[in-house]
Amino acid sequence: MVTPSYTAAADRPVSLTLIFRATLLITTIATFSRPAEAVLSVNATPEYIHSCRKADVQFNSCIKETFNHLRPYLINGIEELTVPPIEPLVIPKMQMENGHGAVRVRAILSNMTIHGASNYTVLNVRSDMNKYRIDLGLFIPHIEATGNYDVNGNVLLLPVRSRGEFWASFENVTALAKLYGVEVNKEGVKFMKTERLGIGFKLEKSDFKIKDAINMQNVIGEAMNVFLNENSAEIIEEMKPAASQAIGKHFKNFLNNAFLQIPLKVWLKDSE
C-alpha cells in the first residue's frame, strides 16, 4: 500500500481511458446525492458523525477517524441527508473536454455504476481549519465500473468518433483530495461550504474494454479502438487536467449538499 505524497500529487498528469478511469477515483471521497433539503439541529450529533475539536492536538487523527467512521453509513445511505447507498455508486452523467495537446476530445460518460468505492480507507489527513483546508490521502483496493460513453475529437492527427458501452477495473488506487472551504452563515447558523476540490491519484493496475456502437463493422473504427486501448496510458496523461476538473466539480456539489446541512458545531464542537 502506498501513502499518497502531498507534493503536487493533484498536479501530476495521469491517462484516454482516464476519461473512464478518472471518473472513479474519488468516488473515494463522496457520492452522488439529491439536492439538500433538511438542516440538522445544532443540539444533536447523529450516530454517523464522529465530531472533533479544533483545539485537539491530535486533530488530524480525529478527522481521519471521522471519515473512516462515516464509511458504513455511506454503504447503507443517510436518509436524512438524502445520501443514497454507495454500493453501487451511481453517477448519471459526467462531462469533460480537453482542447490542448495531442488529445483533443470531448467526452460524456453516463449511466455509470461503480462497485468498490465503499471499501475506502483514509490513510492520512492534513488540515488548517482556520482556513477550512483539508487534505485527505485515501486508498481503495479495487474499483469496477460500467456505463456508457460518447467521445468526439482528435487523437494525434486522427479524428475519433466513438460511442457505446465501457467496462473498467482498477487495482490499488491511491488518491489525494484537496478541499478548499469557506464559512457561510445561514439564519445565524454557521456551515462550511466547499469552494474548490482538487483530485490527484495513482493506479497500480487497470483493465479496460469498450463496445463501440458506431464503428462495429468499420475496419478503420476497429483499428482506432485498438489504438485507443493500447495507448490508454499516454492518452490519459493528456486527459488528466480535464478529467480532474470534471471530477472535482461533480463531487464538490455532493460535498456541499452534505456540508450545508450539517452545522459546524455538530462536527466541529469548539467552533464559534
From TrEMBL:
It comes from the Eukaryota. GO terms for biological process: circadian rhythm. Keywords: Biological rhythms, Signal. SMART domains: JHBP (SM00700). Pfam families: JHBP (PF06585). Belongs to the TO family. PANTHER family: PROTEIN TAKEOUT-LIKE PROTEIN (PTHR11008). This is Protein takeout. It comes from Aphis gossypii.
